[in-house]
Design goal:
By secondary structure, the protein is of the alpha/beta class. It has helices at about 30-45, 80-90, 105-115, 140-145, 150-160, 165-170, 185-195, 215-220, 230-240, 245-260, 265-280, 305-315, 325-345, 350-360, 385-400, 415-420, 450-465, 480-495, 500-510, 515-524; strands at about 10-15, 15-20, 55-60, 95-100, 100-105, 115-120, 125, 165, 175, 295-300, 320-325, 360-365, 375-380, 405, 425-430, 440-445, 470. Helix 2 (about 80-90) packs parallel to helix 3 (about 105-115) and helix 9 packs antiparallel against helix 10.
Length: about 525
């Protein structure tokens, strides 16, 4: 390796077993220097007569979590990834992948060219490229059907959902489960036991399973995949594995990969991937900002928004006190929460005991004073400035020091709401979108006097409850509604000119939007 090459791969020996270790923080991505290190150290281990088996493992929190997507679209550097993988698969000595954390995308493809795989029980394995508008471009669609069968391979590649280690072992993707804290030693022992068996090149294993599952997946996901190219390209590659020799299958996969890589859909999905991560970075916020502890949440309003907001926290085991003004409204709101959870349980998303546990940490009340012990209080009443200022004035006297006071307002001025309190540093917006327990976007509105730790805490709790949290400034409609408003205005103009709501919605859906403006209004 040249002097400029970072040392991200090292080699150690344990008797007759060579251990090649990738150390490329934070997620051991397959950067060009990692590929170079793998090529160099595998060549060294294979050329050493005293080495009888090889273990590939990673330092840090995870196995190889995937390709270095920051290199996508840039001039190639370092050895070709496919060439490196093919050389590992062709190794004359048994190679064992030792997996912890996540083996995703290119990471799983690296594990697939190893002859055997051992993983800790907490590991997850998958090929999420479809979520970036891509497919596994290094043999994943051709090797997976030879290891887990057509059904599992088609499902994994087209949905992008990872498998827990136990399920991966059941499917044959993992050969052995290691101790959670003894992976390094267990992998060496496993490799030593495989010396007598020798290499087991994945490409030489036969494809198995029922190809009919591919059409079944297309039918089952027709609505979800409408307009997307990548799921169908993934399935086409898995289907190709059932009828083409391995090398021809690889060529077909590569052709499909390049089409997607240089297409507009993948470019857009990769943009979203980076944009969501960029949105989590808050301008002007010190990196050492200490978060406030959120152990209990209060929600004012048990209607559609208040109930949905509450569900987000209950699902994460965070107790919620929900306040209404009338018993009938309170009973109706908590009843809807239970009904939603029971409907999810009927679909297998929750166990009945989980539903009871979530309802067990929900405290319904008619008394605003019961919010005194909450660390975060979210107001979710109707859009009226006077009403909201009245509530925040009362919260100022009730809430404990350091509690964050948040409004779910979608349009109103957070700075004006904050004037109703003596603690404007604790006031911010947390605008959930309807239905609040489903929609991913959470606008965290930073007021002129919002304290840095309050803002950082709201962003962190948003992430904890599974939202994509973005910081918004105080302005009309913040971000989402400011973008939607022109569409809504023009839709109403079309309505006044004689078009029906159904016609207007149909045009939007055919254009590619999930729903039209009037469907969206009905849902909200």
């Amino acid at each position: 390796m040249s002097e400029e090459t970072p040392v991200s791969v090292t080699l150690e020996k344990d008797g007759e077993v060579a251990v090649i270790i990738v150390n490329n923080p934070p997620v051991n991505a397959l950067s060009w220097h990692v590929r170079q290190g793998l090529e160099d150290h595998f060549a060294a281990a294979l050329g050493d007569d005293s080495v009888k088996a090889i273990v590939l493992r990673c330092a840090g929190a995870t196995f190889i979590a995937g390709a270095d997507i920051s290199e996508f679209g840039k001039p190639p550097r370092g050895p070709d990834f496919n060439a490196v993988l093919n050389s590992i698969e062709a190794a004359s000595k048994p190679v064992v992948a030792a997996i912890h954390g996540t083996a995703l995308g290119g990471g799983l493809e690296t594990a697939l060219v190893c002859h055997y795989r051992i993983a800790v029980p907490s590991a997850k394995l998958g090929v999420p490229e479809v979520k970036l508008g891509l497919l596994p471009g290094a043999g994943g669609t051709q090797r997976l059907p030879r290891v887990v069968g057509v059904e599992a391979a088609a499902t994994m590649t087209s949905t992008g959902d990872p498998l827990p280690a136990a399920k991966a072992k059941e499917l044959g993707l993992v050969d052995e489960l290691a101790g959670e804290d003894s992976l390094a030693a267990d992998a060496i022992a496993f490799a030593r036991a495989k010396i007598a068996d020798g290499p087991r090149p994945t490409r030489e294993r036969p494809v198995f399973g029922d190809v009919a599952v591919i059409e079944q997946l297309k039918t089952a996901n027709a609505k979800r995949w409408r307009g997307f190219e990548a799921p169908y390209a993934n399935l086409a590659c898995v289907e190709a594995a059932t009828r083409l020799p391995f090398e021809e299958g690889l060529a077909f996969e590569r052709e499909q990969f390049m089409k997607l890589m240089f297409g507009s859909q993948s470019a857009a999905q990769r943009h979203i991937f980076f944009a969501e991560r960029q949105a989590a970075k808050i301008d002007g916020l010190p990196k050492d900002t200490q978060l406030r502890d959120i152990k209990k949440v209060g929600v004012i309003g048990a209607g559609t928004m208040g109930g949905g907001i509450s569900m987000n926290f209950l699902q994460k085991g965070i107790p919620v006190t929900i306040v209404e003004m009338q018993q009938e409204a309170l009973d109706r709101g908590t009843g809807v929460i239970r009904k939603n959870y029971e409907a999810s349980a009927a679909k297998g998303r929750f166990k009945p005991e989980q539903v009871e546990a979530m309802m067990g940490i929900l405290t319904p009340t008619l008394n605003l004073d019961d919010l005194a012990d909450c660390d975060l209080i979210i107001e979710a009443v109707y859009e009226n400035m006077d009403v909201k200022k009245d509530i925040f004035g009362k919260l100022d006297k009730i809430a404990k020091p350091g509690a964050i006071l948040a409004s779910n307002t979608s349009y109103l001025d957070i700075d004006e709401i904050a004037t109703a309190t003596s603690r404007p540093g604790d006031v911010l917006g947390m605008h959930f979108f309807s239905p609040a327990n489903v929609m991913k976007l959470l606008e965290v509105v930073r007021g002129d006097k919002t304290a840095p730790d309050a803002l950082a805490t709201a962003m962190a709790i948003g992430k904890k409850i599974g939202k994509v949290a973005v910081v918004a400034g105080v302005c009309d409609g913040f971000i989402g509604n400011r973008m939607l408003k022109p569409r809504q205005v023009e839709a109403m103009n079309l309505l006044m000119e004689g078009a029906t709501p159904q016609q207007i919605d149909k045009v939007h859906v055919e254009f590619g939007m999930p729903m039209g403006p009037f469907q969206m209004s009905d849902l909200a």
